[in-house]
Amino acid sequence: PDVIIEAQFDDNDAEHGQDHLQDTLTDDMKKLSLDTSEKGKAAGVTGEHRTKQDDGPKVNDPRLLPDEFLQRTAKVVYILEKKHSRAATGFIKLLADRNSELFKRFAMFSPVDHRVPRVYVPLADCPPDFVTKPEAYSQMLFICRIVDWKEDCNFASGQLCKSLGQAGEIEPESEGILTEYGVDFSDFSPEVLECLPQNLPWVISPGELAKRRDLR
User: Fold this and answer.
1) CA distances from 66 to 39, 71, 121, 174 (A)
2) For the domain 87-181, what is the CATH code?
3) What is the per-residue pLDDT across 182-212, written as a single tens digit (0 to 9) for each?
4) Which segments within the chain are labelled E, that is strand?
5) Which of 62, 79, 177, 198 is buried most, with the most CB atoms less than 10 Å from its CB?
6) Once rounded to an integer, what is the mean pLDDT over residues 130-153?
């Protein structure tokens, strides 16, 4: 009978080469052929007549393949801890389908970091003249925070938090990176500033320099 072997190529196959894979497939085909022959002999002894349609399970049945040729799959069922800040830097643009109901309610946020999904943001969060002059904001950086991502939706849902400024400038780009990684870059409080030396100009004492390594 015709035998079909489905193989899953992995790094081990690449390391051992094509000959190793061919030998493995050949051994499996021999084993399956022997099993088929033994079943045929048993059917001949009992006088049963078997046809191609009722000759038992097919060879490409995953239960008959060796584990090394099977690709294991899994499903995410719960998020224990959110490691990402859910904030991203990117651009906003109008939806492509102007006749859809979503076009009247949402805009599309495209993150600069392609690891972050695109996000539907409410038009209410966008600048007032964004719908009439979207080209004016084509190079404007925004901060968006993801709030939800439903299972049956291709894009996440989020809210625009802040307009950073023109893309390519140092200040907006730096603020966007710090926000994405959750770095607090706000001004120090008066309590923190009081911990600093008050008598200026302040210099490091020779005794302190003697016991430290100077990395300046």
Assistant:
1) 20, 11, 48, 52
2) 2.40.50.700
3) 898 899 999 999 998 888 888 888 999 999 9
4) 87-93, 106-111, 119-122, 140-148, 156-166
5) 177
6) 92
Tokens of 187: 């001004």
The pair of three-digit structure tokens given for residue 40, joined into one six-digit string: 């045929």
Phi, psi of 10 (to 5 degrees): -140, -170
Distances (CA, A) of 70 to 8, 14, 33, 49, 169: 6, 16, 20, 33, 50
Residue 62 has what pLDDT?
A: 73
pLDDT score recorded for residue 24: 62
Q: What are phi and psi of 150, to 5 degrees?
A: -75, 150
CA 66 to centroid of chain Cα atoms: 30
**CB atoms < 10 A from the CB of 179, how many?**
20
Average pLDDT, the chain: 80
Q: How far apart are CA 103 and CA 25, in angstroms?
A: 54
Note the Cα 141 to chain centre separation in Å: 22
pTM of the model: 0.55
pLDDT, residue 200, reads: 84
- Say what the pLDDT of residue 57 is: 45
Classify 179 as helix, strand or coil: helix
